[in-house]
Request: fold
Amino acid sequence: MIQQTLVLIKPDGLKKSLTGNVLTRLSETKLDIVAAKIVKVSKELAAEHYRELKGKPFFDDLLKYLMGEYHKKKVMALVYYGEDAIDKVRKICGATNPEEADAVSIRGAYGRITTKGVYENVIHASANMTEAEREIKLWFQPDEIIEKPYPTKTQKATLEKRVWA
Ligand code: IDP
Ligand code: MG
Reply:
């Protein structure tokens, strides 16, 4: 089945200069990258992204981690597109806990558990189609994605926007 999935290279990945390595590993999937950008993550965006984990003891630290407070780095967000994209990407990522992840997976190779107990596991990837749709719509506007994965509509906007001078 043709799918799309959200990938985030988290701030520890950028801090450790792993962007190239991670993209190279993901290229094994032969999937297409249909969107990519660097994001300065707000608390609202982090909390919405991880809303299912609200109430967990590590939730506040997890938000700080995604916002780049620990690494002083941003997040690279991408959308991968193609046959079975969700499972193919998750497989290369490895298990959530980097110590339990297969050593050749991205998380197994590059992740760690901090003394605060946060799993710094370098990469996020959508877990299923429902999550992928919610997350892609959260991180990207339709015009930022080459292959429009979901229906769009046009809306009259009167907001001011920044343009090149
Ligand atoms: P996933 O990223 O493999 O989908 P989730 O359960 O959705 O795993 O958790 C989101 C993120 O929260 C993980 O990637 C990891 O950074 C962090 N996390 C999840 N469970 C724990 C935990 O038990 N301790 C510390 N951090 C965790
Ligand atoms: Mg998850």
